[in-house]
Every structure is written in structure tokens, then in C-alpha cells.
Amino acid sequence: MKRLICKKCGHKETIEDINLSINTKILIAQIPRVREKDGLHIYPLYCLKCNYITEWAADPNNNSGKAIGGVEYFKTFKINKKFKQYFEFIENDLVNRGYTKSETIKYSIGWIAIIVGLIAVFN
């Protein structure tokens, strides 16, 4: 399981970015609902791009036969008051986060290219 997908709008993010990056568009609340028949923990994924919740569970061995990249997806629905309260703290904390290691490298390379370009223009 390397990526999670919003089943409403199709936005994908790596696990590294989710809940850790200032740029994330997908959040996960660590408040699962437990399916009674088999005890499966199903987590809500909140997409900030489309404001929909997608329920998902890890299924790395595709035991269900329905897993996509080690994840089985369930219901997708517009966020409601119940789920909004789960994500309020996580969403408000985004501005206090930094960049992940891969984002730092990516943006550093971009700034280097801009600086080299400016030096070339003004010399």
C-alpha cells in the first residue's frame, strides 16, 4: 500500500504525504469503524479537493479480491457533521507542518533552477 485514492475525484497521494505534508489534499482520521461480521477496521479518508469521504481498509494480500494497490475501498459520500469533527483538528494543523523529505528535495531543485536562470539573465 503506497498510495490512497479519493474514489470521488480520483486524487491520489502517497502515504508519505498524507497527514504529514503541508501540501496534502487527503487526510486520514485514526478513528475506524469496525465491521461486525469480521472485525475489519475501516478508516475514513477525507479529500480536501472534493470534500468527500471515502471509506477504506488495508488489504495487502487482496483477500477480498477487490483491493486496488493493497487497499479495499467502500462507501464514498459528502462529508457530514459527524466526520467533519474527526478531521477538524487535522485540517487546522496543516499550516503548522513542513514539507516531507521528497517535497523538500523537489522544491530545492526548483529554486536552484530559478536562481541559475536569474543569474544567467542578469549576467
Structural summary, described in words:
- This protein is of the alpha+beta class.
- Helices cover 28% and strands 27% of the residues.
- It is built from 2 helices and 7 strands, in the order βββββββαα.
- The chain has helices at residues 81-92, 101-122, and strands at 3-5, 12-14, 26-28, 33-34, 41-47, 52-58, 71-78.
- Strands 3, 4, 5, 6 and 7 form a 5-stranded antiparallel β-sheet that branches. It has a two-stranded antiparallel ribbon with strand order 1-2.
- A hairpin with a 6-residue loop joins strand 4 and strand 5.
- The longest helix is centred in the last third of the chain and has 22 residues, at 101-122.
- It starts with a strand and ends with a helix.
Q: How confident is the prediction overall: mean pLDDT?
A: 85
Straight-line distance between termini: 49 Å
Estimate percent helicity: 25-40%
Largest sheet: 5 strands, antiparallel
Structure annotation, total helices: 2
Q: Judging from the principal axes of the Cα atoms, what is the shape? A: elongated
What is the rounded Rg? 18 Å
Order of helices and strands: EEEEEEEHH
Count of DSSP E strands?
A: 7
